[in-house]
Amino acid sequence: MYIYIHMVCDVHQNITAALEQCDCIVVPSIWNENSPLVIHEAQQARKPVVTSGKGGMGELVKDQINGITFTHRDQKSLENAL
Q: Which residue, among 26, 4, 20, 21, has the nearest Cα to 82 in the 3D structure?
């Protein structure tokens, strides 16, 4: 699997422009995050989110509705989701 990262803007200066260049946002956090800001930003930009269902991320992203969830700490599950 190949993932290419190509940004032509400074993400810290213009998050909206950065999100416009993305096909999806991947949040593979291994921690119990309550409500990651990046997920809210991605949803506002109407970008699908790929994340584990761990913690609050599973409450924000519903599998096959507003994104895709994968099994926490399972690389093959993440690969399949992508």
A: 26
- The reported pTM is 0.81
**Segment (H or E) for 25:** strand 25-27
DSSP 32: -
Question: Which candidate, 73, 79, 34, places its Cα nearest to that of 52?
Answer: 73
DSSP bridge partners of 70: 52
Residue with tokens 């690389």: 75
For residue 59 the two structure tokens come to 């409450």
pLDDT tens for 31-62 read: 888 899 999 999 999 999 999 988 899 999 99
